[in-house]
From TrEMBL, chain A:
Membrane topology qualifier: Multi-pass membrane protein
Organism of origin: Caryophanon tenue
Membrane-spanning parts: 7-31, 51-72, 79-99, 105-128, 188-206, 236-259, 271-296, 316-338
GO CC field: plasma membrane
Locations listed in the record: Cell membrane
Matches recorded under InterPro entries: ABC_transp_permease (IPR001851)
Name of this protein: Branched-chain amino acid ABC transporter permease
UniProtKB/TrEMBL annotation, chain B:
All residue ranges annotated as the ABC transporter domain in the record: 5-240, 257-502
Localization terms from the record: Cell membrane
Primary residence: membrane
Organism listed in the record: Caryophanon tenue
Protein origin, superkingdom: Bacteria
Membrane topology, as annotated: Peripheral membrane protein
Protein name stated in the entry: Heme ABC transporter ATP-binding protein
One MF term in the entry's GO annotations: ATP hydrolysis activity
Annotated CDD domains: ABC_Carb_Monos_I, ABC_Carb_Monos_II
InterPro entries attached to this UniProt entry: AAA+_ATPase, ABC_carbohydrate_import_ATPase, ABC_transporter-like_ATP-bd, ABC_transporter-like_CS, P-loop_NTPase
UniProt keyword Amino-acid biosynthesis present: no
GO cellular component terms, semicolon-separated: plasma membrane
PROSITE patterns, alphabetized: ABC_TRANSPORTER_1 (PS00211), ABC_TRANSPORTER_2 (PS50893)
Length: 348, 514
C-alpha cells in the first residue's frame, strides 16, 4: 500500500472505527444507533440552518487550534489559550459597545482589541519563561483562572452588577444579514473569513518569513539557534504573544459574532482546551487545524440534535463524540494496522 | 579451534536496501575479535542480528557449535551474549546496582532485594578490577565509569561473549587505556569479545583477529599480527588512504586571533579558563591539545560569544570582539564548527538545506527583507552539498537527522567555510567519523590555511593534532602550558604536557617560525 493512500485512509478508517464503537455503546445502552447517527448527520448537514450553525461552531475552534499549533511549532505548549480567549472576548465586547465609530473602523478596531488583549495575556507567559525560566504550562494555567475571575469582575462592574455587558453596536458586529438570509436565519457570521485568513497568516509567517525560520529553529533546537546568533528569549516571547493573539481572535468571534456581548461565566468555555486536541489532530499544520476544527465543531454542534431527534441523553452523546475523537487521535494504531494488512497482502 | 559464535552467510535487508550480504564472522573462545567497517557499512546491523533485534533473511547463527534462532535480546542473554552499547542504556537518577538489576530484580517477600544485588555487583566489580561503587548514582559518575556499569550489567547476567559497540567513542585517552586493560582481564577470565570500531590504532593494539565489512559485504577476516593499519584501511575503504595528511610548511602572517589574559567561568561559576594567552596567525593551523574538560569548550564558547568573558580580551584582526554577541562575532569573520554537531551545529528536524542557511538566513540573497527566499536557500544548499560531497538521500530536502555523522559534519563545514571566514574554529571536527571522512575534513582545513586563513583546531586525538597542526598549544587546567611544533615533539612529550607535567627542557623559541 502506498504511503499516500495510507495517509488518506488513516483518518477515514479512524472515524469509521470511532463510529462503530460509538454504535456499540448505544446498542449496549439500549438506544438505536441508526437513529442516533441519523440525528447527528441531520444536526450537522440536515439543512442550511444546521450547516450555518455548524460553520459558526467551527470558527473559534480554528483560531484556538491555530493558537495551540503555532506554539507547538515554536517549541512551546500554550495551555493558556482559554484565558487568552476570555481576555480577547471581553476586549472585543467592550470596544464593540463603548465606542462609536463608522463600521469600517469600528469592526476592525474591536477585532484588533481582542488580538491585543489575548496577545498581552500570553506575553506575560512568554516573558516569565524567557526572563525567569517559569515553565509556560504552570504560568498559563494560573493565568487561565486569573483571566476567568478578572473578566467576571470587570463584566460585573461594567454592567453595574449585572451578568453581561451591553450588546455590541451594529457597527462592530460580525453578523451579516446576507449570511443569515443564506442560511435560514442561523447565527453564521463573518468570523469564518477571519479564521481562514488567519490560517493563511500562520502558514505565511512560518513558511515564508525569516522570522518564521527563526521561530521554528528556536522551537526545535535552542542551542543551535543561539549558536546561529538568534535571540532565544526574544523569540520565545514573540512566539507566545502571536499564539495569544490567535486565541484573542477566537474570543472576538464569540463577542462580535455568536453572542454579541460578554457575560459572566461559571467556568471555562472549553474552547481553549479543545484547541489542544484540534491542533494535535491537525498535526500542528495550518491546514490540518482546519480539518481538526471541522471535525470537532461538526460533532459538537451536530450532537445537540441527538437528544431531541433520537432521545439519546446528552451524557451518552458526549461519550460517543469523545470516542470518535479518541479513535481519530489514535491514528497511529490504525496506521500500523493498515500497513501490516497492506504488507501481508503484498506478501501473497 | 573451537568457535563460540559463528555467523555464517548472514543477509539482512531493509526494503530494497541490503544492509548485510553474505557476511561471515567466527568468534574463537578467548579472543578479542574486531569488526571493522566505515560508518554505515553494516556493523551495527550485523550485531543487532546477533543480539536478536533483527531477524536475518538468510544465513545461520551457531553458538558453541549448535545452530540457534535468536528471536529477541532475551534469547541472546540466555545464550550468554551481552552487548555494551555505544549510547549507554542507563537510568540517570538510579544507582549503579538499580541499573544493573533493572529487568531481572531479585526479590524478597515481594520487595527488591537491593542488598543482595549490590553484594553481587561488588564481587563482580572486584573480580574484574572495575572499581565501581554499587551505590553511586549514574548521574554522578564519569562516562568511563558508566561504561563499566554497562560491562557489569552484561557480566551480572552471566554473559560469556561480550559485544562492545564503538566503546572508545566518548572516552578520554586514559579511559581508553583502562578499558583495554579491562578487556584483557575479561579474556583471561575466559570471556570472548567482539569489538566494533573504525579506529585502526585500537584494533592493532587490542585485537587478535579482524573481520572487515565494506558497504554491507563481508570482505574477509585477517589475523591482526599479520597485517598493518594501511592494509586494514584499504580493505575497509576499498582504496588507498593517506594517513599522513600531505601539506606544505606553513608561512604564517600577522595575528588573526589574539587572546590575552582570558578568564572564563563555567555554568557553576568555577573558572575553567584562567588567564589564558593564545594567538593564531594568518596561514597557520594551531592545534589545541588537551584532555577533555581542561577548558577547551569554555575557551571556544568565549571566543564565539556563547559564554561570558570574565576578564581579558579577544581580538580579531586587531579589532576587539570581547563580549560581543554571537552574530556580531560571526559577522566579523569567525567560522565555527561546534564540538557537538547535534546540540549546536544542526537543527536536526530541519531539512539539511535549511541547516546550510543557518548562519546566513537573514541576509541577501537568502532572504529579502523579512521574506525568506527558499529557492535561493535550496540553490545554495545544492552548491554546498555538491562541493563538500555531502551524501544525502533526497538532496537538500533530506532531514538533517537522517544523514550519517560524517555527512552532517561535512554539511556544517561546508556552511562555515562557504562564508569565507578569516578565522575557522574547528572543535573535534572528526569525532566519531571514519577514516575516509577524516581525510576529507583534514584536507579542507589545510585548504583554508593555504588560502591564508587562520585555523584553530581543538582535538582530543593526539594523531589529529600532530598531523594537521602547524603549531600545538597544550591546554591544561585552563591555561596554555606550552606551545610546541609537531616536527620537534612526539606523542610521549605531548602526553606528559597534557597531563600537567612541565617540560624538562625547552628547546623552542616560542612564537617564532619553524
Amino acid at each position: 500500500m502506498s504511503n499516500r493512500l495510507i495517509n488518506i485512509l488513516v483518518p477515514v478508517v479512524s472515524i469509521i472505527v470511532g463510529l462503530l464503537v460509538g454504535a456499540v455503546v448505544m446498542l449496549v445502552s439500549g438506544y438505536d444507533p441508526i437513529l442516533g447517527y441519523t440525528a447527528l448527520w441531520n444536526g450537522i448537514f440536515g439543512d442550511s440552518y444546521s450547516i450555518g450553525n455548524t460553520i459558526r461552531q467551527i470558527t473559534p475552534y480554528i483560531l484556538a487550534g491555530l493558537a495551540v499549533a503555532f506554539a507547538f511549532r515554536t517549541g512551546l505548549f500554550n495551555i493558556g489559550v482559554e484565558g487568552q480567549l476570555l481576555m480577547g472576548w471581553l476586549a472585543a465586547a467592550w470596544v464593540g459597545y463603548a465606542v462609536e465609530l463608522p463600521r469600517i473602523i469600528h469592526l476592525p478596531l474591536a477585532i484588533i482589541a481582542a488580538a491585543v488583549a489575548g496577545g498581552l495575556w500570553a506575553f506575560l507567559v512568554g516573558f516569565l519563561k524567557a526572563r525567569l525560566n517559569v515553565h509556560e504550562v504552570i504560568s498559563s494555567i494560573m493565568l487561565n483562572y486569573t483571566a476567568l475571575y478578572i473578566t467576571n469582575a470587570i463584566i460585573k462592574s461594567l454592567s453595574d452588577g449585572g451578568f453581561k455587558t451591553e450588546t455590541v453596536l451594529a457597527s462592530a458586529t460580525l453578523r451579516a444579514q446576507w449570511l443569515r438570509d443564506l442560511t435560514d436565519n442561523s447565527s453564521l457570521h463573518l468570523g469564518i473569513i477571519i479564521a481562514l485568513l488567519m490560517v493563511i497568516v500562520m502558514w505565511f509567517l512560518l513558511e515564508k518569513t525569516t522570522r518564521g525560520y527563526e521561530l521554528k529553529a528556536v522551537g526545535f533546537n535552542q542551542n543551535a539557534a543561539e549558536y546561529a546568533g538568534m535571540s532565544v528569549k526574544k523569540n520565545i516571547i514573540l512566539a507566545m504573544t502571536i499564539s495569544g493573539m490567535f486565541a484573542g481572535l477566537a474570543g472576538a468571534m464569540e463577542a462580535l459574532g455568536t453572542f454579541q456581548n460578554a457575560s459572566i461565566k461559571a467556568g471555562f468555555t472549553g474552547v481553549g482546551f479543545d484547541g489542544i486536541a484540534v491542533a494535535l489532530l491537525g498535526a500542528n499544520t495550518p491546514l490540518g487545524v482546519v480539518f481538526g476544527a471541522t471535525l470537532f465543531g461538526s460533532l459538537k454542534y451536530g450532537a445537540l440534535n441527538m437528544p431531541n431527534a433520537a432521545g439519546i441523553p446528552e451524557e451518552m452523546v458526549s461519550i460517543i463524540i469523545a470516542l470518535i475523537i479518541f479513535f481519530v487521535a489514535c491514528g497511529y494504531v490504525i496506521r500500523l494496522a493498515l500497513s501490516k494488512f497492506g504488507s501481508k497482502k503484498e506478501g501473497k | 579451534m573451537e568457535y563460540v559464535i559463528e555467523m555464517l552467510g548472514i543477509r539482512k535487508e531493509f526494503g530494497n536496501f541490503v544492509a548485510n550480504n553474505n557476511i561471515t564472522l567466527q568468534l574463537k573462545k578467548g579472543e578479542i575479535h574486531a569488526l571493522l567497517g566505515e560508518n554505515g557499512a553494516g556493523k551495527s546491523t550485523l550485531m543487532n542480528v546477533l543480539f536478536g533485534l533483527y531477524q536475518p533473511e538468510a544465513g545461520e547463527i551457531r553458538v558453541n557449535g549448535k545452530e540457534v534462532k535468536i528471536a529477541n535480546p532475551n534469547v541472546a542473554n540466555d545464550l550468554g551474549i551481552g552487548m555494551v552499547h555505544q549510547h549507554f542504556m542507563l537510568v540517570e537518577n538510579f544507582t549503579v546496582t538499580e541499573n544493573i538489576i533493572l529487568g531481572s530484580e531479585p526479590t524478597k517477600f515481594g520487595t527488591v532485594n537491593i542488598k543482595q544485588a549490590a553484594k553481587k555487583v561488588q564481587e563482580l566489580s572486584t573480580r574484574y578490577n572495575l572499581d565501581v561503587d554499587p551505590y553511586a548514582k549514574i548521574e554522578d559518575i564519569s562516562v568511563g565509569m558508566q561504561q563499566r556499569v554497562e560491562i557489569l550489567k552484561t557480566l551480572y547476567r552471566g554473559a560469556e561473549m561480550l559485544i562492545f559497540d564503538e566503546p572508545t567513542a566518548s572516552l578520554t585517552p586514559q579511559e581508553i587505556e583502562e578499558l583495554i586493560q579491562i578487556m584483557r582481564l575479561l579474556i583471561k577470565e575466559g570471556k570472548s569479545i567482539i569489538i566494533i570500531t573504525h579506529k585502526l590504532k585500537e584494533i592493532m593494539e587490542v585485537s587478535d583477529r579482524v573481520t572487515i565489512i565494506r558497504k554491507g559485504e563481508g570482505i574477509g577476516t585477517v589475523v591482526t599480527a599479520d597485517t598493518n593499519p594501511n592494509e586494514l584501511a584499504e580493505l575497509m575503504v576499498g582504496r588507498q588512504v593517506e594517513f599522513k595528511t600531505e601539506k606544505t610548511d606553513a608561512t604564517p602572517g600577522e595575528d588573526v586571533l589574539l587572546v590575552e589574559g582570558l578568564t572564563v567561568a563555567d555554568y557553576r561559576g568555577i573558572d575553567k579558563v584562567v588567564n589564558l594567552n593564545l594567538n593564531v596567525r594568518r596561514g597557520e593551523i594551531v592545534g589545541i591539545a588537551g584532555i577533555d574538560g581542561n577548558g577547551q569548550s569554555e575557551l571556544i564558547e568565549a571566543i564565539t560569544g556563547l559564554r561570558k568573558v570574565k576578564s581579558g580580551s579577544i581580538k580579531l584582526n586587531g579589532k576587539d570582539i570581547t563580549g560581543l554577541k554571537p552574530r556580531q562575532i560571526t559577522e566579523s569573520g569567525v567560522g565555527h564548527i561546534p564540538e557537538d554537531r547535534h546540540k549546536h551545529g544542526l537543527v536536526l528536524d530541519f531539512p539539511i538545506g535549511h541547516n546550510i542557511a543557518l548562519q546566513t538566513y537573514y541576509k541577501e540573497p537568502i532572504s529579502k527583507g523579512f521574506l525568506m527566499d527558499y529557492s535561493k536557500v535550496n540553490e545554495k544548499a545544492r552548491q554546498v552539498i555538491e562541493e563538500f560531497d555531502v551524501r544525502t538521500g533526497h538532496g537538500e530536502m533530506t532531514p538533517a537527522r537522517a544523514l550519517s555523522g560524517g555527512n552532517q559534519q561535512k554539511a556544517i563545514i561546508g556552511r562555515e567555510v562557504d562564508r569565507d571566514p578569516e578565522l575557522l574554529i574547528a572543535a573535534l571536527p572528526t569525532r566519531g567519523l571514519d577514516v575516509g571522512a577524516i581525510e576529507f575534513i583534514h584536507s579542507r582545513l589545510i585548504e583554508q590555511r593555504d588560502k591564508g586563513k587562520a585555523v584553530l583546531l581543538i582535538s582530543f586525538e593526539l594523531d589529529e593534532v600532530m598531523n594537521v597542526s602547524d603549531r600545538i598549544a597544550v591546554i591544561y587546567d585552563g591555561q596554555i602550558v606550552d606551545t610546541v611544533y609537531p616536527k620537534l615533539t612526539n606523542e610521549q612529550e605531548l602526553g606528559l604536557l597534557m597531563a600537567g607535567e612541565k617540560r624538562q627542557t625547552t628547546t623552542l623559541n616560542k612564537g617564532g617560525n619553524d
